[in-house]
Amino acid sequence: MSTPAQAGLGRPRPTLGPIDLLALIVGIVIGAGIFRTPALVAGMAGSEGALVAVWVAGGLLSIVGALCYAELAATYPHVGGDYHFLGLAYGPRIAFLYGWARLAVIQTGSLALLAYVCGDYLQALLPLGPVGSSLWAGTAVIVITAINWLGVREGAAVQRWLTLAEVGGLVLLIVAGYAADRAPPAPVTAGGGSVGLMLVYVLLTYGGWSEAAYLSAEVRGSKRRIASVLVAGLALVTALYVLANLAFVNALGLDGVAKSEAVAAEVARAAFGPTGAALIAGAVAIAALTSANATAITGARTTCAIGREYPALRWLGRWNEARDTPANALLTQAAIALLLVGAGAAARDGFALVVDYTAPVFWLFLLLTGLSLFILRRRDAAIERPFRVPLYPVTPALFCATTAYLLWSSLTYTGWGALAGCAVLAAGAALLLFLKPAATEMAS
Length: 444
What we know:
Layout: H1 18-29, H2 37-45, H3 48-75, H4 82-90, H5 92-125, H6 132-150, H7 152-179, H8 195-205, H9 225-259, H10 263-272, H11 274-309, H12 327-344, H13 350-379, H14 394-413, H15 416-431
Subcellular location: Membrane
GO cellular component, one term: membrane
Transmembrane segments: 21-46, 52-74, 95-116, 128-149, 161-180, 186-206, 226-251, 271-292, 327-347, 359-377, 389-408, 414-435
């Protein structure tokens, strides 16, 4: 039921099925990261067994977190996802800081980075001159926003097809790794890296599964479906990630993977020759575009939720019921992402910089969301819960311990970009001096 503050803003309807949700989860998780992070992790792992173990651990830890999110999303379905959960548990100020972080750091930064990855590889296939990568990246942001501005059905349909192509490209790369002659064993020159830092990169590559919470109000049928779809999606991703890493090691050797700056291209070239590089360039571009589309879908919903709670930002909270989409939030998100695309043109290593910039802020709020499950279980003991996390309180305690460790790791092992992300979060806290929530904040 809408609150008086939300009257006239429109509200989402249950229009998405399990396949739409599965496509979004798989599509946003299998992004450009799997083509980049294996080299970083291999350089710290020291052995093939350790490499496989850390990727399996990442998948299992992600499933543990997904079960916690499934209970929150099934019990408190809302277009704001984590924003809503945090507001219920801690009040509107913490919720606003999270929404600000997604708008200014997490989602728009990820959208710009993914657009740039897509642009770099499209530039290799279809060069547009010296600034071609930037042009392709800007075009990707505009096209993705336009599709989702037309409506959630259009965005979901594009997501299904992109996810199918993305998974197909990763499977092709796995086949290429096993088709190549096995690399001769060689002494590994790297290794002994921090488990925490390895998990930062691995769980970054698994990142995105929590985005399903932002569509909880738009899923048809029983909310219990959210848990099964999340687990199925992450199980599929884990299997693909482990197979991909084993294929990379088969083709290049562990030391070769660790030293590679473009592991996917080298594997494809080893199996298929020069044609392989072109094939993988297309696969990486599709993977980045798929994740960017899913990021745009879910990111705009947080921004919309903020607008629905703060009268000064009311225009962001308008929901276009004819198209079932947060149109104004999508446009605002695109504008910020385009500014970041322009700024990112000068970055030397945008991938590592965005990891540093986003990681501490991301893990902080993921930890707070995990803790909110304990708070809301105690506070709302009588409320109906369509899905309950198994082995409570052990499961959410494991999730919170993991996120706390990764928060510490992201602050300890990352560079100055982490300080920049924290500074932007502090700027959001300053905004709270001028913004006042509606009297009925955080209502559904």
